[in-house]
Design a protein that fits this description.
The chain is an alpha+beta fold. Helices cover 37% and strands 27% of the residues. It is built from four helices and six strands; from the N terminus they run αααβββαβββ. Strands 1, 2, 3, 4, 5 and 6 form a six-stranded antiparallel beta sheet that branches. A hairpin with a 2-residue loop joins β1 and β2. The chain starts with a helix and ends in a 5-residue tail after the last strand. The relative contact order is 0.16.
């Protein structure tokens, strides 16, 4: 009976670590979830752009999930048309916004990585923004990783 104690202990430690890891992961969105949200946003904009932008701004209909949300801007002038707090701002004033405006292409999801703290924190982390052009909009969704920001070399 005592021979199984180490195996049982290892099992419970593993379950505990998996539970802690999944709780941490559940608190914030993942890159795959951000990409999936962007995919749903693309379909919504193609179906009814005005309605989609309204949902993105309100964060309803599945377009706000933990730290994940969709934001969009006019491809022509960069004015933000959907964002939880920055509607009407200029995309070029966002981190790497000018690059996003220059490189967004219909049918292609691109990614930019930059530093950005989570709300309520000053610690810069890697933020990954996935973006594309759909109709006359540039739309994106992003996630912040747990990795401390390391500038590209």
């Amino acid at each position: 009976m005592l021979r199984n104690v180490p195996l049982v202990s290892i099992y419970y430690i593993g379950v505990l670590l998996l539970t802690i890891g999944s709780t941490e992961a559940a608190q914030y969105g993942t890159a795959d979830e951000a990409k999936a949200m962007l995919g749903r946003a693309i379909a919504a904009v193609k179906q009814d752009e005005a309605n989609a932008l309204d949902h993105f701004n309100k964060g309803d209909d599945g377009f706000k999930d933990r730290d994940l949300y969709v934001f969009c801007a006019n491809a022509s002038d960069g004015i933000v048309t959907a964002h939880p707090t920055r509607k009407g701002a200029q995309l070029k004033n966002f981190p790497l916004g000018q690059q996003v405006m220059r490189t967004a292409a219909a049918g292609k999801v691109s990614e930019v990585t930059y530093q950005w703290p989570r709300p309520g924190s000053a610690k810069p982390l890697e933020k990954h923004t996935f973006y594309t052009k759909v109709g006359d909009q540039i739309c994106a969704s992003a996630t912040t990783s747990e990795r401390q920001w390391t500038p590209p070399s």
